[in-house]
Queue: 3 jobs
Job 1
Amino acid sequence: MEHHQYVRPQFRLLYTALVVSMVGDSSMMLVPPIAMKDLTGSAGAAGLTVMFFMLPICAAPAFGWVIDRFPRRTVLVVACVLSGTALVPLLTVDDAGDWWIVYAVSAAMGASYVCVFGSVTALVKDLVPEHRLAAANSAIQTVRQGLRLGGPLLGAALYTVAGIGAVALLNLASFLVAALLFGLLRPEAPGPPRSRFVLWTELTAGVRVIAGSAAIRRSVVAICTMFVAGGVTESAIFVVSDGLDRPPAFVGVLAAITGIGAVLGGLAATRLISRHGELGAIGAGTAVHGLAVAGLSIPALPAVVVAAAGTGVGLTIPFIARVTLLQRSTPASLIGRATTAYDGIGGISQVVAITGGAVLVGVVSYRILLPALGALVLAAAAYTWRGRG
């Protein structure tokens, strides 16, 4: 009982520090592509900022070894300090010749995402009793999605008024404050003696965890299928907007509606996991996402609005459930590598899908493409649902 009473303040401190860091992250979300569009005049150059952000996520298992090898608190503090430092070059961005700085910082933010959220996933497992893991993960994910509603608008407005340097300073301040708060966490007890370092064994440990669990393997099928559908939808959503006779800026409205759905999904996730288990929740959420992707093809504004909200619900519930499944299924000494390996698999799926989607939307009607993707996601949902329990 005393341990659980102590754990609650520790989790609140972790949660507060994470929220502070996410305020800065969310404000920076739209700024790199907007800045690249302003610097180069190229929409393609702007879109590549997402690709550079995803590249470190594809190499996530290397970060997982760091998370498992060193104290989580230390990794979080160092990651936040380095992330803030990596933003400083944005203060020098002035003309088109500085394009490489924006890409380099985007890649650094991708690496920051892997380290921070991988470490947080591991720390939540350390700090929270098993029966409360789903609630803790839901709380983190709900506030993260909530910040995505207002944060990007704040960042875009600040960029318009004061430039990219002002947004970088805001994000830098959030990282430094978060580092101070993470540093207040109680030091971890020493773990068991570490075995001799063998590069291949260490880097593939997380993949072996995933491959060795039937439940985690089923969840990977669902999550990666959703990432594929989401990657293609990144490009198709502009065609959907055209089909509704709306300007390209309407995509921002749909993104906000998706964020509202994500918050609702975060609020519902704990109950779903409690009732159906992690795989059941992943299956149910994936099914919602599949129906929503297909619904985006309906050429009617009310249907598209409902579908946009559904994609948010359908992404968030499986994300929370898969994190909880990893925490419950994986030894503490491997949780960092398992989490980052999972992120790497998903990141590769998404990068491939974004690239392929940019081609597909030009040759296949979205009214055929999106229902086909929705059917694929529903098949993955059924496969995952059958493994529950």
Job 2
Amino acid sequence: MTIRLLALGGAAILLTLAACSPATSDKPAAINELPAPLSAEGDFGATLQAALIAAKPGETIMLPEGTFQLADGLSLDIDGVTLRGAGQEKTILDFTGQEGAGEGLLVTSDDVTLMDFAVRNTKGDGIKSKGADQIIYRYLTVEWTGGPDENNGAYGVYPVESKNVLVENVTVRAASDAGIYVGQSDNIIVRNSVVEYNVAGIEIENSMNADVYGNIARNNTGGILVFDLPDLPVTGGNSTRIFDNEIGSNNTRNFAPAGNIVASVPSGTGVIVMANQNVHVFDNKFDDNRSAHVLIMSYSLPFTDERYNPLPRDLVLRDNFYGAGGNDPQGDLAPLAAALGGTLPAIVWDGVARWGEGAAQDVNLAVLEGPEVGFISFGLGKYPIDPATMAPSPERPQATPAAEPAAIVLPHADR
């Protein structure tokens, strides 16, 4: 038996939740403070790329209202630039006819603000930033209008290898990996955003010091993921707070291309924490996630990275609301659930405390929910799995709750 957690298909059920991402910024600069928008005449993609190349630090590039067909991806490598449209529903950069498989927009400079526009149907990632400190993604929409499809771009909004990352009031739909993905970064806020019909709604991977709050994660395969993976330049992900989110009906079939790490995410999971440390999940609303509301697991594949700890450690779950769920577990959770009567409780832990021949560790999993909130440890013991030693138990592990990380403060959040 393996715990690859391969997901099966499933119908998505809409939640009647109000979107928290308005169509445009609620604090627009006065009209006389903004430059004239770029000309919409002629080859708009060429006009915009020329403006991005010629931009000066501190400059704002205004995008006009309209839907613009772009054949080539865009790039920005000048510090201190703001790229601003007329609104998420008013300025649309449409890459349906994109040549090549790159991003819609790639940013490799610091102190950049991206706001008030939409990116549609890129062949690769929607908007990616790499090594871009103090970046702001604000009032943006990234979507693939054909709905869930493995041929969609992997990531909608994709900051990586950065410090001081702000993602707010962003909407992402139908990414074949993660709607909002922050990787190998430090000091992060993801807030007040809507992610739907992605494989993973929001993913914090190999990152430190992240606050994820005020978001709606609905109709994804998995709602919010906090992972740490081996063999990346930055490892040892830790100190994430997931709070005040609405995480429901994440029952979309897993449409990630085969071989992607998220191809193992079971349809119907609310929050997944894998091999990460000091993760606090509190004051969230979970509802109608058919596999499990919270899944806690270790990394299960062989690895050689000596820096890497494959076990989740120092997790705290408290004060969450758990509605219906766990009634139709998917993927490799299905046979495990069948052995337990066919359903799963709100909180599921694989019960792994060591890897290979290594010594057992105290994972320090603190489940501080009321007694009415169900919990199960599959009691797998270790990876690789020995089915003969599996010992399921509803008993919550003994733990000393880890201290909650301090709230994230970003020096540039109010600009």
Job 3
Amino acid sequence: MKLLHADIVYAEDREHLAIHPDSYIAVEDGIVKGIWRKIPEKFRGIPVTDYGDGVLIPAFSDLHVHAPQYLNRGLEMDLLLEDWLNQCTFPMEEQFADPEFAKLVYDAFLDDMIANGTMHACVYGTIHSEATGYLLESMDRRGMRGFVGKINMDRNAREDLLEAPETAIRETEVFLERYGSNRYTRPILTPRFAPTCTPELIAGIGKLGKKYRVGVQTHLVESRWEAEQARILYPECSCDTEIYERAGLLDNGPVIGGHFIFPTEDDVRILQKHGGYAVQCPDSTISIIAGIMQTGTLLDRGVKVGLGSDISAGHHIGVFTQVARSVQLSKLKQFYEPDGNRKISFAEAFWMATKQSGDLFGGTGSLEPGSVFDALVIDGLSDAARKLTPEQTVERFCYIGTKENIRARYMNGELLER
């Protein structure tokens, strides 16, 4: 049993933050037992870890991030999507054929992710099974809940990043068998996006999804270019998302659609039907000028929406920064396209990055009783002339905070070393 004292803030629901100032939280076996203003009699005598004016919040979830692109963050940001892939991204991913290079990058990536308060993630690897396996195992050893995918693609990319469909399917099945029973981090099927996958490959991994009951992550209607290419290459499908539905990829586990910026009515209907997540990646949207998600509209229609850093099209690994960007972009969307779009509140964006996304990983993303205690203590954000409320502290952290404002990190109930 652990007792902690702090100001406590988490998303109660989509529209409201739960605020517990000057309160105590009890954690047992990594699970939150309750929050009180005074220590209950049954807990008296248990040592208290006192964070004073620090604010305790849930750890964040990143639903769309490319681990092998970590070394490219903040570079080549003047390129648009197609050029950025061919000139920057694909050349970097080729280097992950070297397992030792991959280990060096992936360890740094995971350390930085945790340092910035992200403890759950849906992660893209590369086509390289050994390197991607190391990434998955490293997350699992750290106790990070998540999904890691070996990328599948067999056309429209650099030759060294393509596999023959039968090779890709065989290697993916080995990957699923090897890592499918891990405790915290598990495999997820990862066709990069429709223009890089032949119908043969999509059909093959669709069969694997059914056989192993495993979900899928991919890029969905990220840009007009991608959406147009998908319709050209799959003329029998009305939209990007139908390609995966026809292959049976949306019925077996989590469905994670990165970006989802230009959905048709059919895209929205299909994603909602299968309980899939649309993932907004605000910094990425700004950098490669793909477009702005209809965040408020999708939320109002009942679509699950999470946030992603999208390293390295996005330049900051901290998902807390994307909370602020999400609000900003929703305001731009409403201002320039007022018909059918609305701005979202800070509470909604924070909920998307914590409780809504945390549900994907099994009881994380909140501090209400029964939640897995993955949490951060933030402070150092008030001014000498103005002391912030707990809610204001959280908002300021998402707008101007850094990892240096994270005073303590807890994962599965255990305090992590800095």
